[in-house]
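> example.struct
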């Protein structure tokens, strides 16, 4: 349970105690992910964390209370591995950026002579270590990732290096 969930849990629990609800046996907060099941269910958004508090009674574990959905924006985070080995063994064969909390995405990768060897605007695409159909040589490559923060629309650039190991 994350800190936000603990905060909501304690707040709901103290409210139940305040109003004398003694039959309550379990309250929990869960994150909602996936497709909505009914008109009252929240719609999943990859840039938001959705939470709902559910309360159960002691008798027959009947659900007696659903809270409203709380939606919080996922914080901006981006991660890039520092090495990969496109040797076909199924382990670290691709270079890919991981992250959350951003929209527009673009990545460019350059070799040591400053020549762009890879470019993509699809967050799900991975670089396989090839340039124009040929295996790129082992070495250090520079990447530049351009994104836009989901909440503020601020343009952000992250750059770094990645080692291609053969």
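> example.seq
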């Amino acid at each position: 349970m994350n800190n936000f969930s603990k905060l909501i849990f304690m707040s709901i629990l103290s409210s139940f105690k305040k109003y004398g609800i003694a039959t309550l046996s379990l309250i929990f907060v869960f994150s909602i992910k996936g497709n909505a099941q009914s008109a009252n269910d929240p719609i999943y958004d990859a840039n938001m964390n959705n939470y709902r508090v559910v309360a159960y009674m002691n008798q027959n574990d009947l659900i007696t209370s659903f809270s409203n959905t709380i939606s919080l924006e996922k914080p901006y985070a981006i991660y890039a591995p520092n090495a990969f080995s496109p040797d076909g063994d199924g382990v670290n064969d691709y270079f890919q950026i991981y992250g959350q909390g951003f929209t527009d995405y673009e990545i460019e990768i350059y070799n040591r002579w400053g020549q762009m060897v890879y470019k993509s605007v699809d967050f799900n695409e991975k670089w396989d270590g090839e340039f124009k159909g040929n295996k790129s040589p082992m070495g250090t490559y520079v990447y530049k990732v351009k994104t836009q923060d989901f909440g503020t629309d601020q343009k952000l650039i992250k750059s770094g290096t990645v080692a291609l190991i053969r």
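> remarks
The chain has two domains: 3-73, 77-164.
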